[in-house]
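Take a look at the protein record below and flag anything odd:
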Amino acid sequence: MANCRGPRRCDHPGRHRLRTGRSDLESWDISSLDVAPHRPQVLRSDREARVIAIHLPAGEEPQQHQTHERAYLLVVGGQIEVEKDGTTESGGPGYLVHFDPNERREVRAASDARLVLVLGPWPGEGHPSGRPASAA
């Protein structure tokens, strides 16, 4: 599981930090992260966005089908199907789909899938955490 400290910086195997003087470059090798099914890993979380790595087993759907935030879902490995308003699309590695805040959708893994979900701003208006999006 992630080791989060300070302003929501999370350490994971597969995370890299490059120190270049005044700033650090953070990066993750999503393919090498040890993400267990049903145990998404928050890679980074701040007021602007939350980035989550997900392992979705074949035939399964994520728990949440609607978020308070704008969502970008990127397929890193495997194949998914996305259904919205009766239309279904399929996508494999490199497939990126966008959802508006509170937009209902269905996502299913056609095969074991490795995904990256970006939510922003974090948390979105109405999120059950009760923290306003503009708070620190």
The domain at 35-120 is CATH 2.60.120.10 (Jelly Rolls). The CA atoms of residues 30 and 115 lie 8 Å apart.
